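re: ur question from yesterday

yeah so i grabbed the chain u mentioned. its 382 aa long if i counted rite. heres the sequnce exactly as i have it in my notes:
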Amino acid sequence: MDFDLTEEQSLIKDQLDRLLKDRYGFEDRKKYMAAAEGFSPDMWSAYAEMGLMALPFAEDHGGIGGGPVETMIVMESFGRVLALEPYFATVVLGGGFLRSGASDEQKAELIPGIADGSTKYAFAQVERGARYDLAHVSTTAAKDGSGWKLSGAKSLVLHGDSADRLIVTARTGGEAGEEAGVGLFVVDAGATGVSRRGYPTQDGLRAAEISFDNVRADHVLGDPGNGMPLVRTVVDQAIAALAAEAVGVMSAMHELTVDYIKVRKQFGVAIGQFQVLQHKAVDMFIATEQMRSIAMFATMMADSDDADERARAMHAAKVELGRGGRLAGENAIQLHGGVGMTTEYAVTHYFKRLTMMNTLFGDGDFHLRRLAALGGLFDKAA
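ran it thru and got these structure tokens back, copy pasting raw so excuse formatting
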């Protein structure tokens, strides 16, 4: 199988890497984090000018017609610099729901705003007590004439405080935890009845607690009583993107650590000359390459119509992200010594990001149980 990038894909990667190298150093990131939005509006505009927002969408809707591989390229590059901008929330999650669940009319109305960078989205899904269960939805959607009104609360909405539109899971029937009776609704984040409280997360990004009090939805995506298959499809695609980002994070963390042990001296010699520390650096490299392999597999499976096979790949990717990410992070901190625990050194920020990524949509232990329930990564009956 040929894993080489096409000429167009290589061009995207090269252009993005040059942009980030010039404008996204560690000190730049600190400055962006301190901005009111928690990220750089200028960088967001630069991504839009490059066409990154338009990558996964069809040309009919202002897109470029890319797919999971293009998303993988972008997310890995963002992972290397710990990018703060809401690309994952807007393009991967928000755009994923529109690509897979919106009608042609809805796509024509909503996708161009993402493609040109003028509209940011957030996925309002998590509720208190859910414990990674996507179907644990208590927020209600009540029929109101020809539309719907939403009431309830959502937690940890990634970039929810800066989003222009929210894609909200709400229950039209049944009880929390049931697969049936969940719909997906598009809501104007500034609508009457929407209350948002934003805050920084441990990895430097932003999230929000959002409440809905009889909020009128602008759009319904698909069947309002059977939205869970769409939720699981888009979350699987998002996990593939997270796996790609993890490759970028782990690669940069490994490079930082190797560079550090080459110059840090103990007993008059660089600590990189001690064999036991070399072994730990090699363990980090192996973990990174294992993450790269499973991220590629997840990328290939992201658009699969076979829900079980797609889920196996995403469960495996999250297991490796949790296991390998922790190993790489712990070794990086240990090899840096005391300074590795300080906020002045980049390595601690990389480890924080990996830790937060592990918990998003279920940690490694959760997905290991799910993978075991499916019989492992490969169907033995096939």
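noticed a couple things. Strands lie at 121-124, 140-144, 147-158, 165-171, 182-188, 194-200, 206-216, 219-221, 265-266, 269-270. also Residues 7-118 form a domain with the Butyryl-Coa Dehydrogenase, subunit A; domain 1 fold (CATH 1.10.540.10).
anyway ttyl
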